[in-house]
Here is the input.
Amino acid sequence: MRKLLTLAVLVLSLFSAAAQNSYDGKVVLLEHKGKQALFTVEVEVDKKGDIEACAGEALMYILLTEGVPGINNGEKLMQKENKYWLAHTFFTGKNAPYKPHIAGAQLEAEPRQTPTGRYRGSVYINLNYDALLRQLVGYGVRNK
Here is the structure.
């Protein structure tokens, strides 16, 4: 019985750790010039040092699944649903496919701690927009 309880606690802790990586955020397009697009992305994270990485992931996820006003007429970039590709390919690994499209990321200001102990911060992100569109076509989740 004790082993079963220990196993249950271990499994639940794995789920709670996975839930900490969220793609929630607030994304605003600042400028879209040529092949580049500049965004500000606000996220809330558990560790202060994770703000830039989580902001990049949140930007990509929101662009692909929800859309951002001013880009692609506010429509999502992923035209063909492929949740497996999104969850198990695009965001995974040390060299995840989304990473080369982020040309630069810079904190807007010092992150602030929320009453819950998490950190909230805004990041300026420069995105290689045209290259992203070409890659999405190559992966088969977007039409030409």
Q: What stands out?
A: The chain has a mean pLDDT of 86. Residues 63 and 76 are 6 Å apart (CA to CA). The two ends are 57 Å apart (CA to CA).
